[in-house]
Request: fold
Amino acid sequence: MPWTPKNPTHAGLLKAAIPRYRTNACRRLAAGYGDILASTGGKVPGKNDFDITRFVAAMPHLALCAITKPDRCLYRLVGEDLKARMGFNPTGANYYDYVPEERRRFAADAMHMVIDTPCAFRAEVRQSYSTGLSLIIEATGFPLISNEAGVDGFIIFADQAVDDSIEIHTDRRRLLGANVEQRDLIDLGAGIKTDFVDMVWEA
Reply:
């Protein structure tokens, strides 16, 4: 099973992306972020101006990450359901540590694209766990402007298992790794990176 470059599955405006969401948490974050853009005339919100309480129903599945180039994507805040599914609290950890080495550069490129363009994404990710369990997760990420020294930007994520029954946390599994299987790029008004490519593991 080789590592294979893969172009985005879909690319377009946020309005067109909403129907493609498969989980409630990701859909709520995307719709709510769209409402914020509508109220600011398309201006990307700053991290300090982002009111997370607008997303109460999705909060257990949300995470806030601080992006520092070239190789840090640190979890700042993590929702309770997300922590429970991962099997530990990743606050302070580097997301890239859970990405196979062969595609860490591509994962970093995706995060840098979100804060630099700025744009957003929806991805389907296969996660592997210590019990041998393999799950398909839907994740979506939206940019937040940083006013912190040493942080190039923030990304607010929603992350939820596509199969809702998996959210019943009955075993002692621990997340070992994650690999994107497909990604949609979402234009927030500043365009998208048309030459973006993922590296995926295909049978």
Notes: The mean pLDDT is 92.
